[in-house]
Amino acid sequence: MKELLLKSTVFRFLERFVLLVISLLLTPFMIKHLGEDGYGLWILILSVLTWFNVVNLGFPVAVQRNITLALEENDQGKVNQVFSTSIALFFVLGIFAAGGLLILAQFPQWLGVPGPMEVTVTYCFYFLTLKIVWGFLMNCLHGFYAAVLRFDIDANISSLNALLKAVGVFIFLPTLDIFGAVAATLAADAITNTYKLYWVKKNYPQLRFSKALISRAQFFNLFHFSKHVVAMGIARTINAKSDPVIVTRIFDVAAVTMFSIANRLAHHVEAFVGSVSGLFQPVFTRMVARGTNMERFFHQVTSLNIFICVTFFMPLYILSPLFIPLWVGEQFLPAAQLIGFFVFGYLCIAAGSGIKNVLLAQANHKWLSVANLIGAIVHIALSIYLAKDYGLMGVAMGTPIGFFVSELIIKCYLLKHYCQFRLWPIYIRFVSAVIILYGFGYPIKTWILQYSSPSWLSLLIFGAVLFPLVALMNYFLLLDRGVKDKLGAMLTQFRTSQQESKGVVK
């Protein structure tokens, strides 16, 4: 299992790296061809699509959990029953979500879109209903990757999707404008979704769909587990994806571009953290199935999440004022001022992600939706209120406060209530991470801005020096000793196997 997790982690990191590189290349290209208004409109459209995927955030977790348990029991009939029931369920949900998007397409003015762009939004939504339905159906397959800990396959497919989409954007966008981005998205999804189906069928040939296997009992089982996760997903989506709508309503579509540059940079870095934290959900589920005590493992996972978060976010926080002007132009330099707020919010998520994994594995997740909903209300209310006095920075301020409330106050209370785990290790590591991130990061950032002018060479030099130093410092100050021992043992075992394989070749 350790080897699979290590392999999956490597491929998930490679996936995120590919996505990051593609995003860094596409963003200035799209801003150049679409303009600030057009690119802001595209970001708004993508955010709205996420709103219609909210039920995806609940039922896939239930399907993954049930498939994992069925495979652990070696119950082939139950695996096919879960698969058949989930296909029927996701097809109905996909049609329902697509219908909702078609209704919104008739009223684009609700999003604050200016008049000339309303027709564009309507037609984009028409075409993207296909993506909604495909996305729902593919959730029937994702549980198999997680259940057998083959996240590397999922990562490779995701990387392929991003590459195909990027090629399509470079080909279609100059001639088709924003509809070129829509065409590239649909074409990439069609190809990769076909490959997903092929891979699962090839590696799990016993899998089959049958109307006779669609089970009402299995449906209610999935729904009983998912109803709170769906609510949690809705609240999380409101918390994470409401900002573009708020910015459009209060300011304009062009302001979405400025805001999204900072937000998407932070999101890409957070994806590296999520590529590790997301791996442990099926591990916690297996531990619950076997009756294993999880407290020690939970604290190790939390320390690993915080370590990776600070290690990746600190260079972004320090170097963003150098990078953003070189990347998209001097006019977007104010976006660097927003990143510090997003970094704090994602640090809160890193500290609380292990709690979500534990409570989901134990099926003690019904109050997680309340935690996320309260955080979303705090976030939106503060963003709207502070935007009046502080502009885009005010919108960014509301985000970390909402995440702090949901992740470090309410979810920690739930963990203590259901599991009786110690909370002080979480708070100590979180406070230590904040001190390291801003206590060391802000002076270094100020010094670099004072004595260095923006250039790709200086950026590369600072990045090459800063990242290993930050990683080394965080390794000693933030990482749990047990994690250090396990990482050392895994690396030693990997080196030994590599040496043995070289000896066999010789």
UniProtKB/TrEMBL annotation:
GO cellular component: plasma membrane
Primary site of residence: membrane
Coiled coil location: none
Subcellular location: Cell membrane
Record InterPro entries: Poly_Biosynth_Transport
One Pfam family it belongs to: Polysacc_synt_3
The keyword Nuclease is annotated on this UniProt entry: no
UniProtKB keywords: Cell membrane, Membrane, Transmembrane, Transmembrane helix
The protein's name in its UniProt record: Uncharacterized protein
Membrane-topology annotation of the record: Multi-pass membrane protein
Transmembrane stretches, start-end: 17-35, 41-62, 82-105, 125-151, 163-188, 265-284, 304-328, 334-355, 367-386, 392-414, 426-444, 456-478
Keyword Cell membrane: yes
Organism of origin: Thalassotalea litorea
